[in-house]
Design a protein that fits this description.
The complex is a heterodimer of chains A (617) and B (229). Chain A is of the alpha+beta class and 617 residues long. Chain A has helices at residues 3-21, 234-261, 263-270, 284-289, 292-299, 310-315, 326-337, 339-349, 362-371, 373-376, 382-397, 419-424, 437-447, 453-456, 462-489, and strands at 37-42, 49-54, 64-71, 77-79, 90-93, 103-111, 116-118, 122-125, 136-145, 148-156, 170-178, 185-190, 194-197, 205-214, 226-229, 499-504, 510-514, 535-540, 546-550, 564-565, 572-573. Chain A has 15 helices and 21 strands. In chain A, the strands form seven sheets. In chain A, strands 3, 4, 6, 7 and 8 form a five-stranded antiparallel β-sheet that branches. In chain A, strands 12-11-14-15 form a four-stranded antiparallel β-sheet, with no helix packed on it. In chain A, strands 1-2-5 form a three-stranded antiparallel β-sheet, with no helix packed on it. Chain B is 67% helix and 0% strand. Chain B has helices at residues 2-27, 44-72, 79-83, 98-103, 106-119, 121-133, 139-169, 177-180, 198-223. Chain B is flat, with a radius of gyration of 22 Å. The termini of chain B are far apart. The chains are: A alpha+beta (617), B mainly alpha (229). Chain A binds chain B through residues 2-4, 46-47, 72-73, 95, 98-102, 105, 121, 123, 125, 127, 162-167, 169, 191, 215-216, and chain B through 56, 59, 63, 79-80, 82-86, 90, 94, 96-99, 101-102, 207, 210-211, 214, 217-222, 225, 228-229. Chain A: This is Prolactin receptor.
Chain lengths: 617, 229
């Protein structure tokens, strides 16, 4: 039987005895006591221990409580040796009754006259119920460490706990707070019995408490509070803060100054400027100033558009270049033969979109034709030569220094030819911007009575002075150009067409007579009537265009290059807008009105080169 | 760039190796066992501290395991069963109080410690084996059982070393019989522990490890008292 069974039997016997003796008790509503509750057992030093219980209701009767225990593996039931030392409802086990590492089975019994009640048994081992007393002799002192104060806290273990012999090992914990605050600052101290607290507030009052715990047990209560006041070192702190503030302000100033100095470069670093458009020669400052003229003048590249008439020459319809001088005439004739070569050479010199179909420059003509001059002299063009010579002679006789140039070559200087007519006429002086040199030529011719009948037939007006000779020249040019064109497209044909002014009727129509009529072969002028190889000027339309008309056929003449005579008293547009059924390829269209501004050239030639949109023939 | 990084790291590695070797050279000499030369001699104080720390750890592990068992495998409230528990080491006479422990001679105390440690060698080994086979326990408990087993073994060796040291120093006489023949200490009915259930075994070992730790502390504070005592 175990310890518990023994105890129970004993209790029952006792109870029976009590009941027997209290059988005659007063008749009341008494009840047996309620079961007591064992609350806890504690040992302060692992040498003694105390158990407390909580009594239940006593049932109205005086109730006694008894604690019984038995040790491990022993049948002996012992009763509590001491009910008083530890207070009420407690049992104190002294050293003699306490065995460590022994399992105790403890029960509390409440007994009254009517019955008894057993508490639940509790198994305890003293080793695991150790709860020491709080540490003692807590001292706190203010010490100084290089001018900064700290608290030195020291204490002693509870006097009952024997840590000196190693029987109990205690670990400590302390807490600190300022008097005016509520939160404690915990510090774990381990097995040591002193501790340092730093980071104190100057002039603050601190509260310190400490507690302990065995390695396997419960924490003790907090020791009594210890107060300490930290002396003022406020002035030292303040001076330090003042120093710190001044230093940081200084650094801040330096930084801002640096930033300010480098703000520009920083700005470039962080926000790189958006690259603006760069136009060569474009000055933004000028734009800001608002002087647009200067800006655009700056934009203007010198020598652009090219002053040379090469482009114009390229664009324009070809004009025949009639050299007044014999040499020129010859060259012209030669040029007919050399059309292909000249043209080709010219074309090579010109750009791809050149509309020219013929040799452009007299220089070229001279060069090229001169080269082939000797070759071609013996060609069977003597008739034409003669004819041209004859005509030319007339021109020469009449001081025909004017010349009809091919259109592209209008702009090329003719050193030996351009000078004479220019000299004569102020308006025709500058040779560069020329449309037709025949104007001068013709005017000259007109002014002189020595002009042959072909010239006398000219009916000149001031305007028409330019017009008609121009028409003549045009016509000649036209035909020539036609010839040229046709020759481009085809094999070189010796056909050249010259026209000579037959007469000018009273209607201001220049009647031209071709010297050699080869229109039959020529695409350009398919409808030249055999009988009358001339074309007459139909009139000048409102746009100052010279309208040519082919007589006989009534069909229109190949359109002529538009011209503009600027300086001669008006802007005359000679247009070849006569309705033509001719193939445009054969003819040169110069039907665009020219602009006044670019019309007049220095030498008085009409600048027909300003025409644009010339289709290439 | 990678070349410089490599060189820098190499320099650091060399530095670290040098420093660590220097550190170990100071305190890394082997503990002298039997009259060796060039070994680092540990003081008795140091030995005691090591052993005490070891025993404290061992007791901690046993406590953890016991509480796990108590949580998951509640023992029956049968009082008969509980009272019938007898630890197989109960035959070893151990002081049950401070006075008894202080009255005991050093040699006796040392012997008691060694007896306890030897007595638990086999039961813990079998306990670990049974835990490994029973899949009821998680790996954590199994590892703890293994660790407990190892620690008992190591602790016994440590305590033997302490005893030898004390004998060398003349602190204790050479009458510690456990050192001579440990098998003598085994209880005659050594098969009792096989009848114990796992929970009871853990309960008994927890108590015995506490005894060992406490006895060692008493021994230390008696022989080499310091500020910790």
């Amino acid at each position: 039987m175990g310890c518990g069974a023994m105890m129970k039997s004993v209790m029952e016997v006792l109870l029976l005895l009590m009941l027997f003796f209290t059988a005659h008790a007063k008749e009341k509503s008494y009840s047996p006591p309620e079961k007591p509750t064992q609350t806890r057992c504690r040992s302060p030093e692992k040498e003694t221990f105390t158990c407390w219980w909580e009594p239940g209701s006593d049932g109205g009767l005086p109730t006694t409580y008894a604690l019984y225990y038995c040790k491990e593996n022993s049948e002996t039931v012992y009763e509590c040796p001491d009910y008083h030392t530890a207070g009420e409802n407690s049992c104190f086990f002294n050293k003699n009754d306490t065995s460590i590492w022994v399992n105790y089975n403890i029960s509390v019994v409440a007994t009254n006259a009517l019955g008894r009640a057993f508490s639940d048994p509790v198994d305890i081992d003293v080793v695991y119920i150790v709860e020491p007393n709080p540490p003692e002799k807590l001292t706190v002192a203010v010490m100084e460490d290089k001018g900064w104060p700290f608290l030195l806290v020291s204490w002693e273990p509870p006097h009952k706990a024997d840590t000196r012999s190693g029987w109990i090992t205690l670990i400590y914990e302390l807490r600190v707070r300022l008097e005016e605050e509520e939160d404690w600052e915990m510090h774990h101290a381990g097995q040591q019995k002193m501790f340092n607290i730093f980071s104190l507030r100057s002039g603050g009052k601190y509260l310190v408490e400490v507690r302990c715990k065995p390695d396997h047990g419960f924490w003790s209560e907090w020791s009594s509070t210890s107060y300490v006041k930290v002396p003022d070192y406020f002035h030292r702190e303040k001076s330090m803060w003042i120093l710190v503030a001044v230093f940081s302000a200084f650094i801040f100033l330096i930084l801002t100054w640096l930033l300010h100095m480098n703000s520009h470069s920083l700005k470039h670093c962080i926000l790189p400027p958006v690259p603006g458009p760069k136009i060569k020669g474009f000055d933004k400052q000028l734009l800001k100033n608002g002087n647009s003229d200067e800006i655009f003048s700056a934009l203007v590249v010198p020598n652009f558009p090219p002053a040379s008439t090469s482009k114009y020459e390229e664009m324009l319809v070809e004009y025949l270049e009639v050299y007044v001088l014999e040499e020129q005439e010859l060259m012209l004739e030669e040029s007919k033969d050399l059309l292909d070569g000249c043209l080709k050479s010219e074309n090579s010199r010109s750009d791809s979109d050149s509309g020219r179909g013929s040799c452009d420059s007299h220089t070229l003509l001279m060069d090229k034709c001169g080269e082939t001059k000797e070759e071609e002299r013996q060609t069977n063009r003597e008739s034409s030569l003669i004819e041209t010579q004859g005509w030319k002679e007339e021109a020469i006789n009449h001081d025909t220094s004017g010349r009809v140039k091919t259109w592209p070559s209008v702009y090329s200087p003719l050193p030996q030819y351009g000078s004479n007519p220019l000299d004569k006429q102020s308006s025709l002086e500058t040779a560069k911007q020329h449309s037709l040199s025949t104007s001068s030529f013709l005017t000259q011719a007109g002014t002189k009575d020595a002009l042959g009948p072909s010239y006398t037939d000219f009916c000149f007006s001031n305007k028409q002075n330019h017009l008609h000779p121009q028409t003549l020249a045009h016509r000649e040019l036209q035909t020539r150009s036609d010839v040229n064109i046709s020759n481009i497209g085809r094999k070189r044909s010796p056909a050249t067409e010259y026209v000579e002014v037959q007469r000018v009727n009273k209607e201001d129509m220049v009647l031209l007579q071709p010297v050699v009529s080869r229109c039959g072969h020529i695409e350009g002028c398919p409808n030249l009537p055999k009988g009358e190889d001339y074309s007459k000027v139909k009139g000048v339309d409102c746009d100052n265009r010279l309208l040519l008309q082919r007589e006989g056929t009534g069909e229109d003449v190949c359109p002529l290059v538009d011209q503009e005579t600027n300086g001669e008293g008006g802007n005359c547009y000679t247009s070849s807008t006569v309705s033509t059924t001719q193939k445009p390829t054969a003819c040169m269209y110069t039907s665009m009105p020219l602009q006044e501004e670019t019309a007049l050239t220095l030498n008085g030639y009409v600048d027909t080169a300003t025409m644009s949109n010339l289709p290439s023939c | 760039m990678p070349g410089t990084i490599r060189s820098v790291s190499l320099v650091w590695v060399v530095l670290l190796v040098c420093l660590s070797s220097r550190r170990t050279s100071v305190g890394a000499a082997p503990i002298c066992t039997n009259g060796q030369v060039g070994c680092h001699v540990l003081s008795l104080d140091n030995l005691f501290d090591r052993v005490i720390q070891h025993s404290a750890r061992m007791h901690g592990i046993s406590s953890d395991l016991h509480s796990e068992f108590e949580q998951y495998f509640l023992p029956s409230k049968n009082q008969i069963g509980r009272l019938g528990r007898i630890c197989h080491t109960s035959t070893i006479i151990t002081p049950n109080g401070k006075e008894n422990a202080q009255r005991m001679a050093r040699e006796q105390l040392t012997e008691v410690i060694l007896k306890l440690l030897i007595a638990w060698r086999d039961p813990l080994w079998h306990f670990h084996q049974s835990m490994a086979h029973h899949h009821d326990f998680n790996n954590f408990s199994s590892n703890k059982a293994l660790e407990m087993n190892d620690m008992v073994h190591e602790l016994r060796q440590g305590v033997e070393k302490v005893a030898e040291k004390m004998q060398v120093l003349g602190i204790i006489s050479n009458s510690v019989t456990s050192l001579a023949s440990p098998e003598v200490l085994l209880p005659s009915d050594s098969a009792d522990w096989r009848l114990m259930k796992d929970y009871d075994l853990l309960y008994c070992f927890r108590r015995d490890s506490n005894k060992v730790q406490n006895y060692l502390k008493i021994l230390k504070c008696r022989i080499v008292p310091d500020h910790g005592c």
